[in-house]
Amino acid sequence: MLNYLQNALGRHSSQPQIHYVDCGVDKVVYTLPKSRREDLPSVLAFAMPKSGSVLLDRMLREVCAELKLSYVSIMEEFFRLGIPDNLFPADTANIFVGQGYCYGGFRYLPKSFEIPIIGEAKKILLVRDPRDMLVSHYFSMLKSHPERGKALQSSEQKMKSRELAQELAIDDYALRMAKRFLIFLQHYQHLCEAEQVKVYRYEDVIYRKADWLADICAYFDWPVAASACATIAARHDVIPSAEDEANHIRQVHPGNYKKKLQPATIEQLDAEFAATMQFFGYEERGN
Predict the structure, then answer these.
(1) Of 208, 198, 212, 257, nearest to 237 (Cα)?
(2) Residues 112-128: pLDDT tens digits?
(3) pLDDT in tens, 18-71
(4) Chain centroid to CA 218: how far?
(5) 2-279 under CATH 3.30.70.790, yes or no
(6) Is the pTM here over 0.70, yes or no?
(7) Per-domain residue ranges for the chain?
(8) Residue 24: left (phi > 0), alpha (psi -120 to 50), or beta?
(9) CB–CB of 113/88 below 8 Å?
């Protein structure tokens, strides 16, 4: 009865909403909160999985709180609800409006719904050496990544990548998941080729978080003091003294794939990711 009343009230909201059919029942699963800063243009923050995406998400949330700007991570909402990636509702497009929001939490460029403001909104993208991302993803799935939520009756709780990490050795896992990461990178590459996108590489920013955050704020034209950026960045400047495979922040140093993967695996990944690594500036670095 409570769910029925909540959904009935939700359908009369003046704010954009997302609907999802849960076991045959049409439900309002998300209502865009009202903006507190309609004077600020909406922006988009994209990232790759295991590229420092959680770090970016957390710092942006704090900056937005400082600005009283509404932060929206719809992918996180869907994960909490237990909606699988291939079933994201098409009407998710309704929540993207031109003023008053920071839309973040993207681990890939969604294909199941449109982002109608993607052409005019300022956009940033965080990437990382794909070989390090694959290694980090393996340990995350094996040890620390949270389970998908189950707020809906039809929630999808199985995570194939978690099952793979439990079944496969790290080299086999990296090779099996490489195609998925390559597709994510290629979609982002196409976005960068079609639109103006400010690209950050994990390797360039992970040791200078305050400067990175200040640069993001400057790019978005956000009136945030450098001291506030430094304070926020300092709260998230965590570098473990030793590797902890069970922790989300396992280790932060670039090039960890060299210690974890066999040379033959690295050679295969180098070949598969050659074009995208070159596009994002990794081909000469070799790490």
Answers:
(1) 208
(2) 999 999 999 999 999 99
(3) 999 888 889 999 999 999 999 999 999 999 999 999 999 999 999 999 999 999
(4) 21
(5) no
(6) yes
(7) 2-279
(8) left
(9) yes
